[in-house]
């Protein structure tokens, strides 16, 4: 747990005084392959079921990129629709685990976040970032679209904001824009300030009534009860599109 090899992907959890800190890492800019997505979903579910946990902090390793989205290496190797559906269901499972988790999840976004990473940030209950945490939905650029993460992103940015960054797939939108649209609740000048604020905020939440927070979380996520089916349907769309010649050629050019 204490040893970190900076070339080795991981998902780890640390529980201290009611705060579960869940951290994921991948050497390719914190991109998320299927095995890491599964571990992340399971770890979030476990923390939600753990009576020793009152609040969750979700973060990634390293000090630059929060999450680069889907693993290009895995995307290139998808050769049938079923494999594609299973891969994109990985992001659906993480978002649904976050949605169903009875504890508030605080997002700690230290740097740029792309594609599926924007979906993960959007599925947190309270999101704090640095000024370096620009966002981009790049999926259209590779011939697919932000179908699986779309509902989570739309829930935070509204349809107008989500469609703007989905269509303008080559542009990063600054952290301040994301704050104005409601994705980020606070934006800080440095990583140190962010970490201090996240810790203080989590500690304060631990003084609240867990039952009250659980009931509030249900209210905040009301209207999303169909997301198990909806995100599965969206995964099928992405799984089909990733097989196109357009996408195959685009992914090769990036690799």
Q: What is the distance, rounded to the nearest whole angstrom, between the alpha carbons of the first and last residues?
A: 32 Å
Query: How does the helix and strand content classify structurally?
Result: alpha/beta
Number of domains: 1
CATH homologous superfamily heading: 2-enoyl-CoA Hydratase, Chain A, domain 1
How many helices does DSSP assign?
Answer: 10
- The radius of gyration is 17 Å
Report the major sheet: 6 strands, mixed
Tertiary shape = globular
Summarize the helix and strand pattern as letters: EEEHEEHHEEHEEHHEHHHH
Helix share bin: 40-55%
Strand share of the residues? 15-25%
The number of E-state strands comes to: 10
Spatial ordering of strands, largest sheet: 1-2-4-6-8-10
User: What value does the average pLDDT take?
Assistant: 95
Unreliable residue stretches: none
CATH architecture title: Alpha-Beta Complex
CATH uppermost class: Alpha Beta
CATH topology: 2-enoyl-CoA Hydratase, Chain A, domain 1
Describe the model:
The chain has a single domain (10-192, 204-254), classed as Alpha-Beta Complex (2-enoyl-CoA Hydratase, Chain A, domain 1), CATH 3.90.226.10. It is 49% helix and 16% strand. It has helices spanning 34-49, 72-76, 81-100, 116-122, 150-167, 175-181, 191-205, 210-220, 227-241, 245-254; strands spanning 10-16, 19-25, 31-32, 55-60, 69-70, 104-109, 113-114, 126-130, 135-136, 186-188. Strand 1 (10-16) and strand 2 (19-25) form a beta hairpin. Helix 4 packs across helix 5. The longest helix is centred in the middle third of the chain and has 20 residues, at 81-100. It is globular and about 55 Å long.
